[in-house]
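From the shared-data thread, chain only:
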Amino acid sequence: MTRTAFYVLSALADEPRHGYGIVRETEALSQGQVRVRIGTLYGVLDRLAADGLIEPDREEVHRGRLRRYYRLTDSGEAALSAQARQMASGARAAARRIAARRAGHDPLPAPPESPGHAP
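Structure, as tokens:
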């Protein structure tokens, strides 16, 4: 899953949003690190919809323009949750390695010996 897709799914995790709302929420969630242009957003939305991770929620007219809202599907929630767990695990591993480096030793213990195998 791309970083942009992750943040788009995250933006839809709590409520349906329209394109511009997704762009703003993505930027806020990523603390300004991910800035999605509208043209790029619709390509991402099309791919996520084709993968069954999001779906249209509703359309409404606002100031004479049509707004399409998208929502996260159950599959999208599962994919987002799995990606979040994977990213958190990676962050914990990186933090352990940084702490070990600062402490001046190897962050990972040696793998256990297999029974019946002498060193």
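The chain has one domain: 3-103.
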